[in-house]
Write a structure and sequence with these properties.
11% strand, 20 helices, five-stranded mixed sheet, 52% helix, alpha+beta
Length: 518
């Protein structure tokens, strides 16, 4: 097991947390049981599946993890390059990828029963699975190479996954008294909002299901056939205040559920990290989902002794990316010299206070909403339709770029960010409007995630810094007094500038992580 070699790692977790976990290695020649000490000492590529399940046990015992874990579930997800599907079983799950390699599928099912301790472990069954894991990894490596994802995986996705997994196992310190207070606040806030929502919109006293929400939106005159529910809620003007109220209620409900999953006695939270949660490669925390906590309730997080918290955020991230990759001179001028959303709010609504609505309008346009629908939205919000038309009609270069993205997606059956992360099609038919929006969104959001992950890697290499919670385009970290937070701002800016080949100068700033009055 020399450095640079590859071994295949399987395990059986002790769900009672009494220290009876078992660990096995297949090195390409022999299969044998090893100790946890031997596992964390591995300095080679360690191929396994669903590493999140055992990582906490290893860290709890040793305070460290192997640094080159290759989780085939992650590599499969990246290489397949499709969006997740409805249901619990995804195309990259081992039941879909490794199970078909078994001549007798009962052998795979037996392994899974032993994996979850529904059966006693049989050495030969685990050995057989290890051989199939190695076989699948070879096939997957060919797929990753052929699909253009291999270089990105080893240079970016693998180190990000390992660093964030270690960070999650280390945990994030919380203030118990603040957790208790915010739990009470959230319970009150949720039920108060639910009551007001039901009475205002004449619906049942419950959070609307997706079907109920779509039915209500259809009655309000929205086109529910061509747009996803998320797009309708986030990017179209709210009629009768329904979508604004629904989104607010949904956010409060998510936060309420997160806090209900936190024990009153918890002093540290250790979430599960999905480093490639969406097709655009966004990072996601679950169990608990810390990214779903609004600023109003975030004061529960506190630094470790001798450390301070800091939150660095990219400024107008998507606007800068769109300006760079489309080479639109007007968009570049807006990004570099103005606040794009405030500028739009003033020009169309003559009111800086409409910045939030203007931001939604700007992003809805860039992600594919037609100009006519934009003008209709401006009318509903009481803005100047003529100014809006002139404003958006100026982005002729950006429009040409969007068309080129759609054409490439249609011609090649796939589309990439500035560094791989392909989104694939499974049809040769003409693009639907939804696919046109999805392809543009994938390039922009996928590029944003790539830049953000590059910045996280740079940040993780700084002495005296520990990453705590990566958000969409921002990160909460803790640092020693020897670290100047402004140096992290400069780091973020430099990474963005470099990755976009100097076409724009990256902008970032230190922001408040939570509302001070809570």
């Amino acid at each position: 097991m020399s450095k640079g070699s590859t071994v295949y790692f399987t395990y059986q977790k002790d769900f009672s947390e009494s220290g009876k976990d078992r660990y096995f290695i297949y090195d390409g020649e022999a299969f044998y049981e090893v100790s946890s000490e031997e596992v964390v000492a591995l300095d080679c590529f360690v191929v396994t599946h669903d590493f999140w399940l055992i990582s906490s046990s290893l860290f709890k015992k040793h305070g460290s993890l192997p640094s080159k874990i290759v989780d085939v579930v992650l590599l499969s997800k990246i290489s397949i390059g499709v969006k997740s599907i409805d249901g619990d079983v995804q195309p990259w799950d081992v039941s879909k990828t490794i199970r078909p390699l078994f001549k007798v599928v009962d052998d795979f099912d037996s392994y899974m029963d032993m994996y979850y301790r529904r059966k006693d472990l049989v050495f030969d069954v685990y050995m057989l699975f290890s051989h199939k894991l190695a076989e699948y990894f070879e096939k997957l490596s060919v797929l990753a190479t052929d699909s253009g994802e291999m270089e990105r995986f080893y240079s970016l996705e693998l180190p990000v996954f390992n660093k964030l997994t270690l960070s999650a196992c280390r945990g994030i310190r919380v203030d118990n008294s603040a957790v208790r207070k915010q739990k009470d606040n959230l319970k009150l806030d949720f039920y108060r909002q639910l009551k007001l929502f039901a009475e205002k919109h004449k619906v049942l006293y419950e959070l609307p299901s997706k079907g109920d929400a779509r039915e209500k939106l259809s009655k309000l005159g929205y086109n529910v056939q061509d747009y996803s529910l998320e797009f309708l809620i986030d990017f179209l003007p709210s009629r009768d205040g329904y979508t604004d109220d629904l989104r607010s209620l949904q956010k409060t409900n998510k936060a309420y559920r997160v806090f209900n999953s936190i024990s009153y006695g918890s002093s540290r939270l250790r979430p599960i990290v999905e480093s490639h949660w969406t097709s655009t490669s966004r990072i996601y925390h679950k169990s608990p989902n810390l990214q779903n906590i609004p600023k109003k309730y975030r004061n529960i997080f506190i630094p470790d002794e001798g450390m301070s918290l800091c939150y660095v955020d990219y400024d107008q991230f998507e606007v800068g990316i769109m300006a760079a990759i489309s080479s639109d001179p007007i968009m570049k001028d807006i990004y570099e010299n103005r606040d794009a959303y405030k500028d739009l709010a003033v020009q169309v609504f003559n009111d800086e206070g409409m910045r939030k609505k203007a931001k939604v309008m700007f992003l809805s346009y860039t992600y594919g909403m037609s100009l006519e629908n934009i003008i209709r939205a401006v009318k509903e919000l009481g803005g100047d339709q003529k100014n809006a038309r002139e404003y958006f009609s100026g982005f002729t270069v950006f429009e040409s770029w969007k068309e080129s993205v759609n054409n490439a997606f249609l011609k090649n059956g796939k589309i990439a960010t500035i560094s791989a992360n392909y989104l694939n099609r499974n049809t040769n038919a003409e693009l639907t409007d939804k696919e046109k929006r999805a392809s543009v969104n994938h390039v922009i959001q996928g590029t944003a995630t790539y830049i953000f992950k590059r910045a996280l890697l740079e940040l993780s290499s700084l002495d005296g810094v520990q990453i705590l919670i990566p958000m969409h385009d921002a990160v909460l970290f803790q640092h020693t007094n020897q670290v100047d937070p402004n140096s992290v701002v400069e780091l973020f800016e430099d990474v963005m500038t470099k990755e976009l080949s100097g076409k724009v100068s990256g902008k970032a700033s230190i922001e408040a992580f939570y509302e001070k009055n809570n």
